Amino acid sequence: MGILDVIFGNSTNQLLEYLNKGAAILDVRTDAEYYSNHIDNAIHIPLQELEYRVDEVKKLKKPVVVYCASGMRSANASRFLVANGIDAINGGGIAKVRSVL
């Protein structure tokens, strides 16, 4: 994984691998962003709430693909989830994740 993957999301192959193994999709954008456009069945937890709602993600008991608008917030969120024992990757921006669905 290169520095650009860390910042803007993992490779398409890794996204597909996670989605094929039943990963949950987590949207960490703001409420306004989510309600204007989101991926169907995505779980919505804004980044600023994730610290307080991490148990919701743990209860899923599955890997997680995190996305935002560009990949920056999802990079922070995926690092936080991994640090809390959750198998998570940065999916990048919504367009990238949507392109592999």
TrEMBL record:
It comes from the Bacteria. SUPFAM superfamilies: Rhodanese/Cell cycle control phosphatase. Residues 19-96 form the Rhodanese domain. InterPro entries: GlpE_sulfurtransferase, Rhodanese-like_dom, Rhodanese-like_dom_sf. GO terms for molecular function: transferase activity. The keyword Ion transport does not apply. Coiled coil: none annotated. Keywords: Transferase. It holds the Pfam family Rhodanese. The keyword Manganese does not apply. This is Sulfurtransferase.
